[in-house]
Each structure stands twice: as structure tokens, then as C-alpha cells.
Amino acid sequence: MFFTVLTIFPEMFDPFWAHGIIxxxxxxxxxxxxxxxxxxYARDRHQVTDDRPYGGGSGMVMKxxxxxxxxxxxxxxxxxxxxxxxxxxxxxxxxxxxxxxASWDGLVLICGRYEGVDERVCRDxxxxxxxxxxxxxxxxxxxxxxxxxxxTRLIPGVLGGDQAAEKDSFSDxxxxxxxxxxxxxxxxxxxxxxxxxxxxxxxxxxxxxxxLMRTLLKRSDLLQxxxxxxxxxxxxxxxxxxxxxxxx
Length: 248
Ligand code: 6GU
Hints:
There is one protein chain. The chain has 248 residues and is of the alpha/beta class. It folds into 2 domains: 2-152, Alpha/beta knot, CATH 3.40.1280; 185-247, Orthogonal Bundle (Trp Operon Repressor, Chain A), CATH 1.10.1270. It has helices at 14-17, 20-27, 64-77, 95-102, 119-125, 141-152, 200-218, 220-225, 230-247, and strands at 2-7, 32-37, 50-51, 61-62, 82-92, 106-111, 116-117, 128-131, 185-186, 189-190. The strands form 3 sheets. A 5-stranded parallel β-sheet has the order 2-1-6-5-8. Strands 3-4-7 form a 3-stranded mixed β-sheet. The protein has a two-stranded antiparallel ribbon with strand order 9-10. Helix 4 (95-102) links the parallel strand 5 and strand 6 (106-111). Helix 3 packs parallel to helix 5 and helix 4 (95-102) crosses helix 6. The protein is elongated and about 75 Å long. 24% of the residues are buried. Bound molecules: 6-chloroguanine (6GU). Residues 86-88, 112, 131-133, 135-137, 139-140, 143 line the site of 6-chloroguanine.
């Protein structure tokens, strides 16, 4: 996967490329990354990338020419890449989108700044618009990092065998189960006995219960959307039974 980021702040990405799983993915050539400074494609002497909006009003707009120049330069390196504009007006990013993007060959991520991007660039040179949630950032850079991070960890071979992405929260419509590590007793609180038992089937059952319980308590909206299997229904029925006996 080839990620090209178009931004007026390329330095923001230096620490991002340099740490953790992203760094390892680059070193192992699972992903290729490059940042293009949109300012380099501004023609005027002061390399201006924004201008006042036609029709008046507050805020500035990203000028079309530098952005178009940067997008075309990116397309020359990876012609099959899709272009994505990070904007609060885009489709809201989720795990399903991350999975989709992880299967693509190349992605050009355009980080908007100021009040917005000239509409002609959005219309003619952008394939998709992505938002990371219903709130407004000062620019698309943090959103681009989030999209790259979430997609990269789903590329085969990026995560080690012991950190498999299949068990992620959301990948099966449930939040992940609770986790514990040593010490066995921390500030008087013990690790659930079953996790020490070595009984794999019982541990898996406990983890499914933990997943279901956490999803019900923290994100019942996810349970509403999910198709439950037989085992999950049995667990919920058991709780239903317990709760009924409590209130009768
Ligand atoms: Cl992608 N960009 C900006 N500027 N704000 C956002 C966003 C993106 N997603 C949510 N808010």
C-alpha cells in the first residue's frame, strides 16, 4: 500500500512515520509513505496556498492551483491510487472503511486547512471524502494519520501473530473482552480465576461473555445492529433470567 499525504504541514507526519507499528510497517515495506508539501506547487513568489472566499465572509479557502498541482504530482508516482479528501463533510470513518482501504494499492490523502477547499478541486480531482467524526478540526492532518493508522494495522503481516486484528473491537460487531496481565493480585484485586485455569474452552466462553457484557453496558447501539449467534443468544438469555429474578 502506498500512502501519499498532501499537506501544508508535512513535518507533522515525521514523528508519525517514526514510531511503533507504522515505523515497523515502513521498515518491512508493508507500506510506502510520502508527504508532499502543497506549498511547493504554489506558483507565486510567496507560495500562497489560501485566498479570500468569493462572495465574502470570514475564513480563507484553499486555492485550487497548488492543490491540483500536488494531486497530479502524486498521481504520477502511483497512477492507480484513489484520492481522498479529509473533511468534516465526508463519510464518517469506521472499521469497515478501514478494512476496505487496507485492500487498496494506493491512497492519496488530501489534508484540508482553513475554512475549506475550492469546490472545483473537490468535484473534479477527489474520489472520496472522509470525516473522522462529527466535530471540527483545524485541519485534516490528524484525520489522515487516523485513517492511515487504522488501515495499516489491517494490512496482512503488519501485526504479529499474537496481536491479530481478527479479535479487534468492532471486527465482529462486539467490543473486545477485558484483559489482565501480571501481577495476579493488584491492589487487592484478583484476576478472574478462569483465566488462570489453562482451560481454553472455558476461557473462550468467559471472553465471549465479557465481550457481550461490555458491549451491552458501553455500546448497546452496536448490539442492536448485530446478528447474534446461538451461543450469544444463550448468554443473553441467562442474564435475562438473572435480571428477571432480581426484579420480581
Ligand atoms: Cl477529516 N477534517 C477536519 N478539518 N475536521 C474534521 C475531520 C476532518 N473529521 C472530523 N472533523
